[in-house]
Specification:
Blueprint (H helix, E strand, L loop, with lengths): L1 E9 L4 H13 L4 E9 L8 E4 L7 H15 L5 E5 L6 E5 L4 H10 L6 H20 L1 E6 L2 H11 L4 E4 L13 H8 L6 E6 L6 H8 L5 E6 L5 H9 L6 E4 L6 H6 L2 E4 L8 H8 L4 E4 L15 E3 L4 H13 L4 H14 L2 H17 L2
Parallel strand pairs: 1-2, 1-4, 2-3, 4-5, 5-6, 6-7, 8-9, 8-11, 9-10, 11-12, 12-13
Helix pairs in contact: 1-13, 2-4, 7-11
Length: 361
């Protein structure tokens, strides 16, 4: 089978880029693969043909808006074209890494500040994404039941949707907690929660929650500008209990240093940071707004937040800290979930979708 695989960024360090790398590496073992991408920072397998898509590199909405046309002008004929989200106007298979309609509504509900790209192009991209899922693809892969439900609700799609959770990768580097804490400069911290990712998704309420708890610390790993959040920490009296870290290509040291991952996200189609933590033997506190929460059993393989407000976060942090004797037990159970949901398994399910599409009229 000849597969055209379409993605903005082929980059193991990014969300949809990680998915692309994992799947391409596996399907190229058994099929001919042509990779279409604007940016490639991870080396593809030698057997993969690479074609550069000359879309704008920045700002982010510049890439989103110009990529489909740029790809359509250079696309070749393939048995199956597998696109990552709205990266083309039509495809045989699309993996929905986000339901933009859901994300935009979550942003509005939380009164988040939107950039000018979102203000100018957000509605256009949402409508275009909806048209793709309604009319211009034959099959959809969703990383969670929540995304499948959102696509049907917001975009009224009747297309075949197969739910295939993203794979769980094993940790890349093994460090002891003391080594990791020394590397981050938090040797003096006691019980420590870890926040990783876009600060807009839940860091504000995490900081406020910290002020409602005792003897709890926080490591914040995020590329989001920190000024406003640091001011909030000062006003909440918790600045001394927070370690601010910028973006990290390798978050394994942060996973090793923490006692629990705190992920009170307002929206995530899946939430690879949660799967990475579980694979790294770090128990998780995660909101139901993350698709990966469908794989977490409350109080057994992690803890589910019923709400993302600061009171709920504080209450759950206190419960976990007070029962720290269970951390290892929960981490072991979470690791078993990770080991049962590998990228090999994910790729097998993707190939089944390809076969089904090829056999259908």
């Amino acid at each position: 089978m000849n597969i055209g695989f379409v993605v903005h960024d082929y980059d193991r360090g990014e969300g949809h880029g990680r998915y692309a790398c994992e799947i391409v590496e596996r399907i190229s073992d058994v099929h001919d693969v042509t990779l279409y991408a604007r940016n490639i920072t991870t080396q593809p397998p030698a057997s993969v043909e690479v074609i550069e898509v000359k879309a704008l590199s920045r700002p982010s909405y510049g890439t989103v808006v110009t990529f489909p046309g740029a790809f359509d002008r250079i696309r070749k004929k393939h048995d199956v074209v597998h696109a990552q989200g709205w990266s083309t106007r039509n495809a045989d298979v699309v993996t929905a890494h986000i339901c933009l309609a859901s994300w935009r509504r979550a942003v509005a509900a939380q009164h988040m500040t939107s950039g000018w790209g979102e203000k100018l192009f957000g509605g256009y991209v949402e409508r275009s994404e909806g048209a793709l899922y309604r009319e211009a693809t034959r099959a959809i892969i969703a990383p969670s039941m929540a995304v499948a439900t959102d696509l049907r609700h917001h975009y009224k799609t009747t297309r075949d949707i197969t739910v295939v959770p993203h794979g769980f990768s094993p940790p890349q580097v093994d460090r002891t907690s003391s080594e990791a804490r020394s590397q981050l400069g938090i040797e003096h911290f006691g019980f420590t929660a870890l926040y990783v990712g876009d600060a807009r998704k839940g860091l504000e309420n995490s900081i406020i929650a910290l002020g409602m708890t005792e003897e709890t610390n926080l490591v914040a790993v995020t590329r989001t500008p920190l000024g406003w959040y640091q001011k909030l920490a000062e006003e909440s009296g918790v600045a001394a209990r927070i370690k601010w870290v910028g973006g990290m290509k390798d978050t394994s040291v942060a996973y090793a240093a923490a006692d629990v991952l705190l992920h009170p996200t307002v929206y995530d189609a899946f939430g690879l940071v949660v799967s990475e933590a579980m694979s790294a033997h770090l128990p998780v506190i995660v909101s139901t707004n993350a698709g990966v929460s469908e794989l977490v059993e409350h109080n057994q393989t992690g803890w589910i937040l019923p709400s993302t407000d600061s009171e709920s976060i504080a209450m759950q942090l206190s419960r976990v800290r007070n029962r720290s004797d269970r951390l290892s037990e929960v981490a072991n159970a979470a690791l078993a979930v990770a080991q049962a949901n590998t990228w090999d398994h994910n790729a097998e399910k993707v190939l089944e979708v390809y076969d089904r599409v090829r056999r259908s009229p």
